[in-house]
Amino acid sequence: MALLLVGALAACGPVPVEQAELTCLRDAELTVRPRTNVALGVGTGFGGGGTRGFGSVSVDLSGDYLAGRDPSQVYDRCVQRRSGQMPRRPLTEQPGWTG
């Protein structure tokens, strides 16, 4: 039982700054615009042999977007919270940032 508790506490510790930067890049992206996903498909029916269409829509919306927060500040705070360190590079210099 004690080993399980130690393992759980270790999982809550800081992550490497590189990993935090990757994770927080998504948070910064959601500050600029919501992310939407639309899926459509067609499949055969079970038992009746007919064809059926299906679809789904999802929207990932952040409170930072709704509050109009600065993506660079959101990114910096997120990296510091997750890793205990400031980012190695600012958000605008991160590969993949399209802001």
UniProtKB/TrEMBL annotation:
Region (Disordered): 78-99
Protein name (Swiss-Prot/TrEMBL): Uncharacterized protein
Highest taxon of source: Bacteria
